[in-house]
Amino acid sequence: GEPEGELWRAEEHDYSPDSENSARTNAALISLVRNEELGQLVQTMRDLERTWNNKFNYPYIFFNDVPFTEEFKRQTQALTKAKCHYGTVTFSNLQLVRPRANIFFSLSSELVPKEHWEVPSWISMDLFQESAQLLEEQNIQYASKISYHQMCRWNSGMFYKHPALEKYRYYWRIEPNVKFFCNVDYDVFRYMEDRNKTYGFTINLYDAPQTIPSLWPETKKFLAANPTFISENNMLEWITDDQARPDHTEAANGYSTCHFWSNFEIGDMDFFRGDKYEAYFQHLDRAGGFFYERWGDAPVHSLGIGLFADANNVHWFRDIGYNHIPYLNCPNSPKCSGCTPGKFFDGADFLAKEDCRPTYFKYVGTH
Ligand code: GDP
Ligand code: MN
């Protein structure tokens, strides 16, 4: 069922879309997405609006490395009573658009540095090509697709610096073609704020160690240089478990590869904007693994949270039924439909071993 204690419910507070004094907290739904994915994003938004946001009307902020098409803006805004904003991640002038009022305004004072998206100057393209080749030979998806590496880096250390998010504290990340199965009747952002939660997830799984061989060694270097950063109530045991899948931990040089799947995340940007995570990201960025390996934003966020946050402030949203191919979070509840309760994966049986929840529950528990 849903969490206990007092929860903010739509019918008890003012969540009307245009209210100046609404009960909404300082939060937005965000997505980095391509124009070509409009159809899949429509499916995501329909699910999220039906199960949750039509009651709360949190704004959407969409990001792209090229300008959004008028068709993209029209179709997305038509799915919600909430406001939609559209930003680019590379251009130096951010354009915010309000199609409803048909007012177009750009905040030229809020510049997006081109360094947010561009491949950093210290990355050698020759070395990138060479390493990508080796990863391709190990059948690592997207290994030689440079934009995929840029996307992972942007999600790791840039999204929360974007001017369009400056005034917001909490975000809920969504992706095209994900599914939401359960009606959720309380304000999940208020839940985060009221309980002082830093990070919320639905799916917890193993990563492909070949994409992150030096991520844990680099992390250990960072920790050795900053020994006071690690939180008292950290998740080191979950991070370094070598019992459940010793082959993985070995190939990832000491990291279990367990992580929160970041295509869904509800988080407090104050954490990512803080000194510790920022210094950690800078260290990783300089080390080059976003390009010479294929570090994902999911393991990077997870290590950051697992090391620098308090485990009590990380929440499993067990009540938010969710699917991103091929994994699921499917609660056994009358509020849910469209998925099989308890099922973790959709597809071949070998996917079952990618579930890291047992290890997470064992070492961290649910909060
Ligand atoms: P996967 O889930 O790891 O297979 O990666 P996805 O292809 O789903 O990419 C993750 C998210 O980033 C999705 O929301 C994509 O729409 C978005 N994305 C990835 N690459 C790009 C890009 O080059 N440009 C834009 N605008 N969005 C991207
Ligand atoms: Mn995806």
UniProtKB/TrEMBL annotation:
<keyword id="KW-0732">Signal</keyword>
<dbReference type="GO" id="GO:0006493">
    <property type="term" value="P:protein O-linked glycosylation"/>
</dbReference>
<dbReference type="InterPro" id="IPR002685">
    <property type="entry name" value="Glyco_trans_15"/>
</dbReference>
<dbReference type="GO" id="GO:0016020">
    <property type="term" value="C:membrane"/>
</dbReference>
<dbReference type="InterPro" id="IPR029044">
    <property type="entry name" value="Nucleotide-diphossugar_trans"/>
</dbReference>
<protein>
    <recommendedName>
        <fullName>Alpha-1,2-mannosyltransferase</fullName>
    </recommendedName>
</protein>
<dbReference type="GO" id="GO:0005794">
    <property type="term" value="C:Golgi apparatus"/>
</dbReference>
<dbReference type="GO" id="GO:0000026">
    <property type="term" value="F:alpha-1,2-mannosyltransferase activity"/>
</dbReference>
<keyword id="KW-0808">Transferase</keyword>
<dbReference type="Pfam" id="PF01793">
    <property type="entry name" value="Glyco_transf_15"/>
</dbReference>
<dbReference type="GO" id="GO:0000032">
    <property type="term" value="P:cell wall mannoprotein biosynthetic process"/>
</dbReference>
<dbReference type="GO" id="GO:0006487">
    <property type="term" value="P:protein N-linked glycosylation"/>
</dbReference>
<keyword id="KW-0328">Glycosyltransferase</keyword>
<comment type="similarity">
    <text>Belongs to the glycosyltransferase 15 family.</text>
</comment>
